[in-house]
Amino acid sequence: MSGKPEHIVHDEKAKLDFSRDMSYGDYLQLDAILNAQKPLSPDHNEMLFIVQHQTSELWMKLMLHELRAAVACVARDELGTAFKMLARVSRIMEQLVHAWDVLATMTPPEYSAIRPYLASSSGFQSAQYRCIEFALGNKNAAMLKPHAHRPDLLAQVQAAYEAPSLYDEALRLLARRGLGVPASHTQRDWTQPYAENDAVEQAWLAVYRDPKQYWDLYQLGEELTDLEDAFRLWRFRHVTTVERVIGFKRGTGGTGGVSYLRKMLDVVLFPEIWKLRTNL
């Protein structure tokens, strides 16, 4: 057997003719994906900006796929399957966190060269990101408006807005298991922002004080902790990257930019899960 590359390929009997069969590029629709980058400026660095955001949207598509399925599993008491999906969501979030490292290589002058071509487009308007936030319980009716011009996208965001969040379904599960979650938190208007509740904390405390009895609920609590931990890191890397690239300029979407993102750092998705640690 020769060590030359062409002989190795021949000896391994690798398939080389795809005139009649589906290829790797065919399966992945690579023509569509790799031709979806359409820079509007003459600047070299716009390709980085586009690819960064397009790949993030692909990861978010997978995240929503897993999140929606996980919420359905929790609603059906299928926690083992839900745990696998939630662990995957946390790992996807880690990928999104590290993606900011690549965008952070864009310097302020480089971004300034492409910013005029962005007009008012902004990640603030991402329908998928909004569905993720709604699925995690951060409900805000105002965030439906950026999608009003696209009925198809509005329908997706509206559905996420009106549905119980992951945490809502977790609390309904605790209630079904006989823990003292009040009706105000199991039968409520799901479009309203979540309100922290002492009785809910007591229910989670019962789980955390007796992990052996409530092992799967205890594991659910830790999966939620992992997820919010990763989400907080993503938000932090977002704000630091934006500050590094544009400073305190207003965002292209009209927000205060860094000032707005810093406010989002204070949003807690699963408050009782974090508070109980002080009271254990």
> Percent range for helical residues?
55-70%
What's the helix count? Answer: 13
* Poorly predicted segments: none
Shape by Cα distribution? globular
H-E string:
HHHHHHHHHHHHH
What does this structure look like?
The chain is mainly α and 280 residues long. Helix content is 62%, strand content 0%. The longest helix is centred in the C-terminal third of the chain and has 32 residues, at 215-246. The protein is globular, with a radius of gyration of 23 Å.
Quick structural summary:
This protein has 280 residues and is an all-alpha fold.
Keywords:
280 residues, mainly alpha, 13 helices, globular
Task: Summarize the SSE layout with pairings.
Blueprint: H1 5-11, H2 24-28, H3 30-34, H4 46-75, H5 79-103, H6 108-118, H7 127-135, H8 151-162, H9 166-176, H10 198-209, H11 215-246, H12 258-264, H13 271-279
Helix pairs in contact: 4-5, 4-7, 4-9, 5-11, 7-8, 10-13, 11-12
